[in-house]
Structures are given as structure tokens and as C-alpha cells.
Amino acid sequence: MRKSVAFTASIGRRLSLPDWAFYPVAALVLAGMIAFAMSGRAELQGVLVSETRLLAEGEALANLIPGPGTSVVYDFAEGASLARSVATLEAAGHLSAGVGLLAPAVFERAVIGRRIRVSVEMRAADSSLTEARLGYFTTEGHDSGWRAFEISEDYAIYAFEHDISPLTQANNEEWVGVWPDAQGLGRGVYVRRLQVDILPAEPPS
Fold first, then answer.
1. pLDDT digits (tens, 9 = 90+) for 150-167
2. Which neighbouring-strand residues pair with 36?
3. What is the biggest distance separating any 2 CA atoms in the chain, rounded to whole angstroms?
4. What is this structure's pTM?
5. Is 58 within 8 Å of 65 (Cβ atoms)?
6. pLDDT tens for each residue of 51-62
7. Closest CA to 11 of 86, 88, 119, 118
8. In CA terms, which of 93, 120, 128, 172 is 20 to 30 Å from 139?
9. Parallel, antiparallel, or unpaired: how do β-strands 147-150 and 188-198 relate?
10. What is the pLDDT of residues 17-49, one digit of tens each?
11. Is 173:34 a contact under the CB 8 Å cutoff?
12. What contacts 178, CB < 8 A, 6 or more positions away?
């Protein structure tokens, strides 16, 4: 059995790049991450996809992809993926979906015009980390943005709901993302379960 599965997209140490260089480099890395993820999107091993649910847990969390400023490794002993960020949310959060799961095309199409609930079971890997961010990212400004949650070293489920605009276009770039450390100090979170549910449509009034 593999001992670990790891991907890294750290932008070096924060002080090693001048401010003018960070955004071009981050944009290039993000393009590479998307291309890499796209090349394997048909092989999201172990990820459950149905008409109303996207679910990754256990070894399926090895499908998580790091965006610029983040890294992720699947910890078999923990049964969870350890996600870290070495860039601040302010510097890189608008260029990246953090540590994310790329939604399969069938699910991406299914959420258009629907209300979704994003649920992530996670815990802090560092005692000094008390907040993490979650988001659902589409295109053309229709994403949820980063939602802040207070976390601890005990596992808990954190969730939010978001309406996907009917104007959203499917383009194979839809992500569920975790930003572990908004301050970019390298502190991490363990992600044990990541789930997106399409909620029942409300009957017309």
C-alpha cells in the first residue's frame, strides 16, 4: 500500500518573491494546476458522483489538487488529507481555489440554477489555527467566495449553502475549495470528508 499521496504548489517562501513577481508566477502555476487536473478529471478514483451529490472521503481525498500557495498530502494513518497554505488569502485567494476538488462535468452541469450545500468534515492540525475558509467556485463571478469558519483540533462538520446562478456556464473548471490558513503561516487542516449536495428545488409559488 502507498504510504502517502502528495501534491504541492507552494510559491516558495513568501519573502523569496518580490511583490511584482507573485501574481504572474501564481497565475502560471494556477494554469498548470488546472491543466493537470483536467488531464485526470475522468479518473477521480473513489469519488461518489450522483445526480444530487458529490462526495469524497477516505482515499478518494487523494484527488484533492493544490492551487497556488497551498499543498496537500493524503495521510493514510489519519484517514484524511492534510492541507496547508504558505501564501496569505489576501495575496493568493483570488487566484486559487486553495486545496480543491475539481467537480466532474456531469455534476458541474447539474448544479446550474440550483441551491447547493457544501459540507466539509475537518479539524485543525495545529493548535494555533482557529479559522479556515471554504468555498465553491464556478465562473463569471457566480461563486460563493471564501466563507470563514472557526475550527478546533476536534473533527466537526462545517457547512454553508449557496445559490448557483442559472447564468453559470459549464466550462470544466468548477471547484470545491479549502483555504487552511488565511495568514499563510503553513498551518494545516485535516480534511476527512468533502461533500456537495444539490438541494431539492422549491415548488413554484
1. 999 999 999 999 999 998
2. none
3. 57
4. 0.78
5. no
6. 899 999 999 999
7. 86
8. 120
9. unpaired
10. 344 444 454 444 444 444 444 333 435 689 999
11. yes
12. 83, 98, 99, 100, 120, 122, 132, 133, 134, 189, 191, 194
Domains defined for the chain, CATH in brackets: 4-198 (2.60.120.260)
Q: Can you read off the three cell numbers belonging to residue 183?
A: 495568514
Within 8 A by CB and 6+ apart from 60, the residues are 44, 45, 46, 47, 48
Q: How far apart, in whole angstroms, are the C-alpha atoms of residue 96 and residue 67? A: 5
| C-alpha grid cell, residue 95 | 487566484
Report the amino acid identity of residue 62.
Answer: A
Across the range 177-195, mean pLDDT stands at 96
pLDDT higher than threshold 50 for residue 120 = yes
Extract the C-alpha cell encoding 169.
456556464
Torsion of CA 143, 145, 149, 152, to 10 degrees: 90
Residue type, 108: E
Query: Over 70: is that where the pLDDT of 142 sits?
Result: yes
Look up cell 489519519; give the residue. 78
Q: What is the distance between the alpha carbons of residues 37 and 139, in angstroms, rounded to a whole number?
A: 17
Rg (CA), the chain: 16
